[in-house]
Amino acid sequence: MEQRYTRTERTRLRRLPKRAHYDRATVHAVLDAGLICHVGYVVDGQPYVTPTCYWRHGERLYWHGSSASRMLRRLREGIPACVTVTHVDGLVLARSGFHHSINYRSVMAFGTARAVADEDKLAALEDFVEHLLPGRWAELRPPTGQEIKATTVLWMDLEEVSAKIRIGPPVDDEEDYGLPIWAGVVPLATTVDAPEPDPRLLPGLSAPQYLEHLASFGWRPAPARESNAAA
Question: Against a cut of 0.85, is the pTM above it?
Answer without folding.
Answer: yes
